[in-house]
Design brief:
heterodimer, A: 501 residues, alpha/beta, Rossmann fold, 2 domains, 14 helices, 24 strands, B: 131 residues, 5-stranded parallel β-sheet, globular
């Protein structure tokens, strides 16, 4: 994606996710405004960049124009993992210029900045409190002149400058047109919860990932989660050829040998219909060649392993061997892009080839805006294809027994190559679990409705229903003429043998 | 009356120290960087200096070095005030008598100051005892 002049030097920010959003980092000798309301995270961001910069051989100067105690600020920073007391004052130096600005105005401040950049040989300057400069300026013209001089000096001294500000005296922001970049930090309400978001509103010299990217502030400082749908796929996915076993031979047979490698399969069904059972069966085929990942929201890893063992699916050995990894994210106050990035990170880190996501609902409940979800899943599944991952994605449908299938969000079914429907149906005063294949990319499939049993011996598919109809509608009834239960009636084409891990 | 020179660039620190120390009977002179601090010390030799470390123009370490090289001021006890820990302060400067980790409580300053004033200057501003 890089569009920048390769001769321009980049300064890594060290803020997880930010360099990716900036297509490689800030530019050396450039001036950036970081704008956000009090508490938005500007000071933490700037300190994090400073400590990273000096940790990689740079020298930084942090100048405050606020009546804020450095001691208090550093006390708060000391709790962050990026803080390194040994860097201060040798390579990272904090000074207050509040009184210089008060006593000597903009000229005095500019002299101080020039002198301090030179004496500390700073390659990074943070000026915290740009609003104070604006308020001290007699006119917009004087303020613009200050910014212009600072830019000229930063370029000559090859010193990157971050100007931190709460806002502006007016809606007119002359400084925004002058600087090389504008980064905003916001705290946005979504219903009763709030989400911190960063946006690159301007970035001279290079492309950047557009739009608002969520972030968290924790002991590691700021961690950004680049918006998943803003990514471009890292490469082009190759057309899949081989098939992959679902771990249930009867289901493989229904799916023309199993789903094609590096495709996605939706497992649609109500709660208790057997989606997790099928997903864990799929993961039981993990191996050193085909590492697996369970990315779930509802069951803790311990419960997942125990529940799988209860139906004869052994996961613990695969976990112990390092072939199966479990990421559990409880579905409370999650950030959609954190989940997407965590999923892709785990896939890349472990070289995952078999992925079970349980379930789509965990992502949906984390979404700040539901209209994002089709694009989000399109980007996610594209990248999973590029990474050669075969994915099973559980999708919970709302009604236990219903003649209709409601997709929780529109547009998702088009993203998956394969769809399997799991349903409950009542027939003869008994509830049945049913399975049917709705779609298989790259081959025909068995269109019959099959009974699906879960027992201590695992998953077993029975033959179709003789003498019943309307089972798919949820309420079966005897058929006028019973259909043949004949396996030879399957609509198979180009069936490839399933691969087992 | 003892004279205390407070050298700190941070708004509020010198002002608060000045007000409280004056209430306690000290004479207080302030400066906002090491260069100004040296000038003030030469104008009005203090009995003790409260010195910040990180300041513009001239930092606390450089001011300490200049004080120790100045025969008229070399003996003046200096208390370094810093948000860094003492090990970091020791690495960056020497020749100070005591250390106060910021943010500190005023009671710590008031306890420390009488301990560091030279005995002969304790009598400054007071009438000699009747012989």
């Amino acid at each position: 994606m890089s569009t920048a002049d390769p001769t321009l030097q980049r300064i890594s920010t060290g803020v997880p996710g930010l360099d990716q959003i900036l297509d490689g980092g800030l530019f050396g000798g450039a001036v950036y405004i970081v704008r956000g309301s009090p508490g938005a995270g500007k000071t933490i961001l700037a300190n994090q960049v400073c400590f990273h910069h000096v940790g990689h051989g740079g020298r930084a100067l942090f100048v405050t124009l606020l009546a804020e105690s450095h001691a208090r600020m550093l006390q708060h920073m000391a709790g962050m993992s990026f803080y390194n007391a040994e860097a201060i004052p040798g390579s990272l130096y904090y000074v207050s210029a509040f009184r210089t600005l008060e006593d000597e105005g903009l000229k005095g401040l500019m002299d101080l900045l020039r002198r301090e950049i030179r004496s500390h040989r700073a390659s990074l300057l943070v000026l915290d409190g740009l609003l104070a400069v604006e308020e001290t300026s007699a006119s917009d013209r004087e303020f613009r002149k200050f910014i212009h001089e600072l830019q000229a000096h930063a370029a000559l001294a090859d010193c990157t400058v971050l100007l931190l500000t709460n806002g502006s005296r007016s809606e007119y922001h002359p400084e925004h047109t002058m600087v090389d970049g504008l980064i905003t930090l916001d705290d946005v309400a979504y219903g009763k919860r709030r989400q911190r978001e960063l946006e690159i509103k301007k970035f001279r010299g290079s492309a950047s990932l557009r739009g608002r990217h969520p972030f968290r502030i924790g002991t590691a400082g700021i961690v950004l989660f680049p918006r998943v749908e803003a990514f471009l796929p890292s490469a082009t996915a190759r057309a899949p050829a081989a098939r992959v076993s679902t771990g249930v031979p009867d289901l493989d047979a229904m799916m023309a040998g199993g789903p094609l490698r590096a495709t996605s399969t939706l497992l649609l069904g109500a709660s208790g219909a057997g989606k997790t059972t099928l997903g864990t069966s799929f993961l039981s085929c993990c191996s050193a060649e085909e590492p697996g990942l369970h990315f779930g929201f509802f069951e803790t890893p311990e419960r997942l392993v125990a529940n799988a063992a209860a139906i004869g699916v052994e996961l613990q050995q695969s976990i112990d061997a390092g072939h199966l990894h479990i990421v559990w994210r409880p579905p409370t106050e999650q950030i959609l892009d954190d989940l997407g990035n965590a999923l892709l990170d785990a896939v890349r880190r472990h070289g995952v080839k078999r992925l079970f996501i349980d379930s789509l609902g965990g992502f949906i409940s984390a979404a700040d805006a539901r209209d994002r979800l089709p694009a989000f899943f399109a980007a996610l599944t594209d990248e999973l294809r590029v990474l050669g991952v075969t994915t099973l994605l559980a999708v919970e449908t709302p009604n236990l027994v219903s003649p209709e299938v409601h997709m929780p969000i529109a547009g998702v079914s088009a993203l998956a190559e394969n769809m399997v429907l799991l349903r409950f149906a009542e027939y003869g005063a008994r509830l049945y679990r049913l399975i049917s294949v709705l779609k298989v990319r790259g081959g025909g499939f068995d269109p019959r409705l099959r009974e699906f049993e879960i027992s201590a011996a695992g998953v077993k598919l029975q033959a179709g229903f003789k003498g019943a109809e309307d089972m798919l509608f949820g309420y079966g009834r005897p058929a006028p003429e019973a259909p043949q239960d004949d396996r030879s009636a399957t609509a198979r084409h180009d069936v490839l043998p399933p691969e087992r891990g | 009356m003892h004279t205390v020179l407070v050298v700190d660039d941070e708004f509020g620190v010198a002002e608060v120290l000045e007000a409280i120390l004056q209430d306690e009977g000290y004479r207080v002179v302030t400066a906002i960087n090491g260069r100004q601090g040296l000038d003030r010390a030469r104008e009005t030799p203090p009995d003790l200096i409260l010195l910040d470390l990180m300041m513009p123009i001239m930092g606390g370490a450089a001011m300490l070095e200049a004080l120790r090289a100045d025969a008229a001021l070399a003996h003046v006890p200096v208390v370094v005030m810093s948000s860094l820990d003492e090990a970091a302060v020791r690495d960056s400067c020497s020749g100070y008598r005591a250390f106060l980790r910021k943010p500190f409580r005023m009671a710590e300053v008031l306890r420390l100051l009488p301990l560091l004033m030279p005995p002969d200057t304790l009598a400054v501003g007071h009438e000699p005892p009747p012989g």
